[in-house]
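Z., the sequence and structure:
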Amino acid sequence: MFLETTLLLSSCFTTALPFSVDQEAPTLSLHRQLMEQQDGLMEDISSALEAELRISPAAFEDTEDTKTTASFGSEGSQRWALMGGWGIDVKHSSNNEMTFGAKWEYFIADGFAFAPELKMWGFFQEGEDAFGVSLDLLFEWHFIRHDTWSIYGDAGVGILGSTKNVPIDGSEFNFTPQAGLGICWDVGEGNRWFVGVRWHHISNASLYSNNPGRDSILVYTGLNMPF
């Protein structure tokens, strides 16, 4: 802007009528001529400044306000979680299970997600204790959803491999049907803490000669984070 104004001033002064002390033009006429040149110069400067300072109204829009942020559980969003839990066999209270793992959520529709879990297990039971790994293919539905909290249900089935039979008179390979309810709430920065309870079944679907099965109430908690 300053360069254009300087060039404009230079142009105007260059094109001004030459003045000499030897000229015999009347003083009044010369004064009028100089005033006209000054007025023209000011108009040109004003036009140049107006052109330089013209800014689109969009520049004043608040980008933070107009930026659209996907709400929790919106279609197409993804999240992941770390979780841990403890379960008790409903028939034999001496049989307990402990788990720790991770979950990935992909929301197929608003509030409805495919939510597989990969977990490690410790089974403390009558007979030899066992350790295992499971992959659970679950679906999760946040049927009550608010800005800062939601209540959900989940259900699915998985596969479990363990170092010893689970239960002790069962097998080392099992299926894990399960279903439950949970609640999650906002804890800042888009993160959500969750707590839930599930019916957690373990059986080999009669793939082996003996299939005693095991039903536990599993209580779990964890932190859910944006992906």
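Confidence is low (pLDDT under 50) at residues 63-68. The radius of gyration is 38 Å.

Let me know what you think.
H.
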